[in-house]
Amino acid sequence: MDACLKPLIKSETSPPGALLAMLLASVIALVGCSGGRSSGDDQAAVMFLDQGLSDEDRQAFYYLSQGSQLLPYDWFLALEQAGNDTLFRDDTHMRELGYIPQPLDPARNPDGLPIGFVKDDNPDMIRADAFRMKKAFLGAAYTLEDYPTTNAWIGPTCAACHTAQIDYQGRSIRIDGGPSLVDHQSYMTQLAAALQATHRDPQKMDRFAQKVLAPNWSQGEQDALKARVVAYSGVLNRLVEQNATDLAYGHGRLDAFGAILNRVTETGLGIPGNHGESNAPVSFPFLWTAPQLDWVQWNSAVSNAIARNTGEVLGVYAHMQLTGTPQTGQFNSTVRIDNLDRIEDYVNSMQAPLWPEPVFGAIDTARAEQGRVLYAGNCKGCHVIRDAQGEFPRRQARPGEIRQFIITNAPPLDQLRTDPRMVQNVLSRFVDPGALKPYLPELPDHLKRGDKVIAVAVLGIAVSGVIDQRLKQEGLEGDALTEVKVRLNGGRTTREQLVPPPSIIATYKARPLNGIWATAPYLHNGSVPSLYQMLLPEEQRVKNFRVGSREFDPVNVGYLTDSGFAFDTSLAGNRNIGHSGPKHTQTRNDDGQWRDYTDDERWALVEYLKTLH
User: Fold this and answer.
1) What is the pLDDT of residues 268-326, one digit of tens each?
2) How much is the pTM?
């Protein structure tokens, strides 16, 4: 399948005519390219653009465990939806939540689960050790007797939220590393409700127990299982309540930072006062090029790879012990550092998807050239593009680094003026460091408030501790430990800044826009549905639209907005303001005065943006 569109690799500086010729030459190769089959709409042929991954790489990216453990695996397979007797994992239900159903694969996906639904099995884990590691998550009243009698759990991997599927006129195109349209908030709410309904409804409990306990069912075993379901149902309910907020996320968004900080500083440290509201949902960023960027996350909060990935998996249901001492298990975790390293290799190999002209229509080369000139004069200062050699501009290596990284710019927020809530939440979150206080270096005054410190510093200590503990458990120390950490960091220095400079973290980064056509909705919070809308002055952008349809609109470049979650841009956190005015939605007249783009110029820029890869 990876041969599909394989010739379509060209730099942004390539003449549009040459790009068109290569695209048209691939029509025959594209038609008929198909991937795996699933059920319902997913039975249609799936096309895979050449993004640098083999079929084997792709399956590993979809189903390699990060160490996430949300629910016992056999429980998930047997669980029914709360309001009916249809399995929770039913493809139709998963599709409604935005996940991408997949066929059974004996090697990677033996139960035919959606992309990113992964089995994490630790057959040698001692039950009491697992219980101890998860005690902060399970709660003070939770006992070892309550703990499930299994070492096989299900949890998400990054592919669940960073794999997109675009539909158009009966065809589907898979975008590996693209932002998905999953509604994870609804998924968690419904999962907790389903488990609660199971132990409250005797018939549901009977069916559930027959599946989970087969072939060794007995009434006594079912009674014991029910007690464990009751106990764990309370855990899931608390997890949902912890991140509950009046601002619904909808499809394609998650307040990942809010959830991670709650998991680490509130749950992990056992300090309820460290709670913060998770009310700043952001779109799932696209992954290609990310390992080569100097900063990642929407607010440039992290640079090195393994810290970014470990923080992510801690937020999505890996478990860690942050209290006590290293001798009593502090920093033990379920995080699979080796698999995170492999996943990073797959991401590092990902290429931006090229606009598939045989499906969406040919790029207007003359109009794209007009857009290229406009982009060079207005957009390139923030969103860098490749040079004539096909390379992005890179900053100088820092001491200890073994490579250079692509420049991301950080225009001041008062100039960018996009919805500030995500940045403000991170900057204003101060917490009690609790058991991690001894590991904190002396911080500048602006990162402290009395006995509290900025939460991202505590997160950094937790992440570093988890990584170091796992590597030391592998017998690494001294120079060998440093060498491995440099590799895991993606070639960056091990002397990582605990908190990035205020000028960087206090705004949203501008990254290269290669593959931007496949990443709707736009802005960091997903508040703009199409590229065309992005080029309108903020007051002219659509104020209400729906998110959730995977049907593509190749004219405006985004998804159709006639079904799904109702997105209201008047709400704080949802605002579609900013990225408007000079160099955003305006260019200069010949007399040097700023003016709005003409509609012809907007369409020219849209056409050029299709060519970036």
Assistant:
1) 999 999 999 999 999 999 999 999 998 888 998 888 888 899 999 999 999 999 999 98
2) 0.91
**What are the structure tokens assigned to 313, written together?**
């998996």
Of 279, 270, 371, nearest in space to 330 by CA: 270
Contact 35, 46 (CB under 8 A): yes
Please identify which residue in the block is written with the tokens 């920093």. 331
Q: At what angle do helices 337-349 and 478-488 cross, to 10 degrees?
A: 40
Of 256, 296, 299, 263, the closest CA to residue 279 belongs to 256
Query: How many Å apart are CA 108 and CA 100, to the nearest integer?
Result: 15
User: In this model, does residue 24 exceed pLDDT 90?
Assistant: no
Report residue 432 as tokens.
Answer: 């009690």
Residue 182's contacts (CB-CB under 8 Å, 6 or more residues apart) are: 97, 98, 99, 160, 161, 251, 252
What are the DSSP calls for 59-79, one per residue? HHHHH---S--SEEHHHHHHP
Beta carbons of 153 and 285 less than 8 angstroms apart? no
List, for residues 566-588, the tens digit of each pLDDT value.
999 999 999 999 999 999 999 99
To which residue do tokens 């303001």 refer?
577
- Please tell me what DSSP assigns to residue 298: T
Lowest mean pLDDT among 175-189, 234-248, 386-400, 442-456: 386-400
Q: What is the DSSP letter of 454?
A: E
pLDDT-derived band of residue 412, with 50, 70 and 90 as boundaries? very high
Convert 248-285 to b/e letters by CB count within 10 Å (16 or more is b).
bbbbbbbbbbbbbbbbbbbbbbbeeebbbebbbbbbbb
